[in-house]
Structure formats: structure tokens, C-alpha cells
């Protein structure tokens, strides 16, 4: 694609490095910014730079935070005897949005993936073990809330092996089963099979 | 959606103001930037700001440009007796990419749209008339290359009325017909009908 201006070519080039944004979409975004007020672009550029340079990660759970301790870890009303282990910050946001969980988190920062060259040492696994083994630790349960993909299952397996020495800490994983609104006939065999084996008894 | 950080909330808010980008996509983009080197964000923010503040529009054809005269208008090898009138800079890029056109352009900056409150005076129509009526004008042909939508056709009709006083200037419009690879049975009736009425005689 030939551009009539080096400035727009640069902007399109940078925008199209973002995931899911190709050259055509990048050009549409650039032309949108050109048509809008200059303030729009200034605010966007500033918000991005500020986010990237000023962001911090919580020293305890590695969630993103504006301060050394994130708002979840600092919240005295939450139950810090439970830790929910997730791979990504997006998972924290998703679980928080359900409003069903009031414990703490631990963000691994990814999953074990030999193909992408991500090993256990690249993730926040040691710091999770440290949190649990700390003398003043009050942790009673660790929930493994990792997406059930090949890499996710490997990570969960690795973690449960790592954590089984802590006899006093319960390890659980999020329930697998048929999602709300899901049709039985379209569910895959493994999910349907497990949802029958691990059926939930109803209260009478 | 609740965010654990004001910084990320601001960035997601600004990103999701872009066309075709919702909150979820914006969050994915923001987290991608957080994972990448700080340079990536700095370069992106700078490229956007530089584009918005330093961009110029060609004084003659209103194409985007880094200088007062765009590279197309300044090119002495092009045929400046033909002007191709388009609504948008994207159309210039699309036509340039075909490599089939070696004349000049005139970018209107939109199409007449009463619903969006865009009238003829909001577009670069007067400057087109000025270009043609200038005493030293060498323009012999004006090609109306405007998308055949309701608004586009209105704009083309308005333009051809405006330009019909210039007896020495030919007005043409881009050919309508069945696109390459298009199937006759799926073509709409108006296109198919016109492609038969305005059939092109083959050279023997």
C-alpha cells in the first residue's frame, strides 16, 4: 500500500502492529483520528504512554495496580485465606465481574508453553509458593482457575504437583461442565462425560 | 467492567472510542502494550500525535500530504489535465494501488448527507469549481469516482449539475458493471441491467 504521507504511513505501521489490526483497519483508525479533534489523538496518545510508563504490578498477587499493593490485596473485607490462581489480568477482571468471589488472586502472567518457550521460571510460580510457605501465611485454599487448554492443563498439573507438599492447603479447580444455555447434543464428549461423572446433587 | 487500575481504565476508555473497537478489544490491545517493550507504546503514541499535529492537506487537491503540495500534484510526469474526484483519501490510495491512473485528484472530504448534516458547503466543491474555472486551468476531463451509494449518487449528481456550465470540460464517471470474479446470477438487477445496456464492444 502506497501512502501519500510519511506521517500517516508511520502511524498506520505502528497501529497495525497491534493484535487483530491489519493495514486496512489501521488506516481507518488513522483517518478517524485525522477527522476528529486534535484533542482526541492527544488524549489517546497520553493515556497509552501514561499507562505503559506508570503502571505497576501488585507486589503480592502481580495484578496490575496503581500502587505497590493492589486494591484487592489491600481490601480488608475480602477473604485472604483463599487464593484464586489465574494466568492473566483479564481473568481477574472476568471473575471480578461475576461478583461471586471475595478472596484474593495470584496472577501467573501466562501459562507453561514449550512451543513459545515459556517455562515455569518465566511465570509467577515461585512467588506463589513463597506466599503459601510464608510463616505468617493464612492461606487455606488455592483455586486453580486456569483455562482448560493444553497449556492451561499442563500449568494446572505442574502447580498441583508443586503445591501438594502443603498438607494444610486445599487445592481446588473451577467446575467444568455444560455452560449456561449450552445444548447437550453440541457439547464435546469430554465435557459431557465429566459433567455426568461429577454431577452435582441437588438440595432437597 | 471494573478495572484494577485507573491508568488501564483510561487507556481502555480512549481506545474504545475508536471505530470498530469495543471495550473487550480495547482491553486486549492495552494488555498487549503492557506485555510488549515500553518502546512499542512510546513509538505508537508518538506516531499518532505526530501524524495528527504535523499532517497537512495539499492546497490544490486536499489530499493528505507532508508538504503544501502533495507528491501527486507535484509530479510533473502525471497528466494534470484529468482530475479524478473522490470522497475520501482512502479512495486515492485504492486508485493509486491499481497503478492504472496517472492523472490528478480532488478529495471532497466526504459526501452530501442531509442525515449527518453534511451539505455541499462542507465539502471541497467550491475549490474544485475554482480549479476548473482558473484562467490558467488546463483541465480537460473530470472523472467522478464516488461510491454508488445513495449519498454518493446525490453528490455525483450535484457535481455534474455544478460542472455542466464548463462546456470544454468532459465529465465522466467510473464504469459500473459486474466485478471481476462476480457471478451473474448473484448480481443485483440494476447492476446487471446497466452492464447489458452499457456493454463494451470487443476489439476484433
Automatic annotation (TrEMBL), chains A, B:
Where would I find the Toprim domain in this sequence?
Answer: 81-179
Which Pfam families does this entry report, sorted A to Z?
Answer: RecR_C, RecR_HhH, RecR_ZnF, Toprim_4
Q: Name one GO biological process term.
A: DNA repair
Where would you find the membrane-spanning parts of this chain?
none
Q: Which CDD domains match?
A: TOPRIM_recR (cd01025)
* Entries under InterPro entries matching the protein: DNA_Rcmb_RecR (IPR000093), Hlx-hairpin-Hlx_DNA-bd_motif (IPR003583), Rcmb_RecR (IPR023627), Rcmb_RecR_Znf (IPR015967), TOPRIM_dom (IPR006171), TOPRIM_RecR (IPR034137)
Q: Which GO terms describe its molecular function?
A: DNA binding; zinc ion binding
Zn finger intervals (C4-type): 58-73
Keyword annotations for this protein, in alphabetical order, are: DNA damage, DNA recombination, DNA repair, Metal-binding, Zinc, Zinc-finger
Instruction: Say what the protein does.
Output: May play a role in DNA repair. It seems to be involved in an RecBC-independent recombinational process of DNA repair. It may act with RecF and RecO.
Which PANTHER family has this protein been placed in?
A: RECOMBINATION PROTEIN RECR
The Swiss-Prot or TrEMBL record describes its family as follows: Belongs to the RecR family.
Name the chain's protein: Recombination protein RecR
Amino acid at each position: 500500500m502506497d501512502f501519500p504521507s510519511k506521517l500517516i504511513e508511520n502511524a498506520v505501521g505502528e497501529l497495525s502492529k497491534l493484535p487483530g489490526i491489519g493495514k486496512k483497519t489501521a488506516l481507518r483508525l488513522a483517518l478517524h483520528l485525522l477527522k476528529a479533534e486534535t484533542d482526541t489523538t492527544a488524549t489517546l496518545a497520553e493515556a497509552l504512554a501514561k499507562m505503559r510508563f506508570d503502571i505497576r504490578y501488585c507486589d503480592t498477587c502481580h495484578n496490575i495496580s496503581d500502587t505497590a499493593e493492589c486494591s484487592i490485596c489491600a481490601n480488608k473485607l475480602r477473604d485472604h485465606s483463599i487464593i484464586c490462581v489465574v494466568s492473566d489480568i483479564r481473568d481477574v477482571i472476568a471473575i471480578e465481574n461475576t461478583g461471586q468471589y471475595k478472596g484474593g488472586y495470584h496472577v501467573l502472567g501466562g501459562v507453561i508453553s514449550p512451543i513459545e518457550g515459556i517455562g515455569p521460571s518465566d511465570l509467577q510460580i515461585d512467588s506463589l509458593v513463597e506466599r503459601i510457605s510464608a510463616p505468617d501465611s493464612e492461606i487455606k485454599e488455592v483455586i486453580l482457575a486456569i483455562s482448560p487448554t493444553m497449556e492451561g492443563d499442563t500449568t494446572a498439573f505442574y502447580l498441583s504437583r508443586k503445591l501438594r507438599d502443603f498438607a494444610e492447603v486445599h487445592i481446588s479447580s473451577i467446575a467444568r461442565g455444560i455452560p449456561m444455555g449450552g445444548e447437550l447434543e453440541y457439547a464435546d464428549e469430554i465435557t459431557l462425560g465429566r459433567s455426568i461423572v461429577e454431577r452435582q446433587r441437588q438440595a432437597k
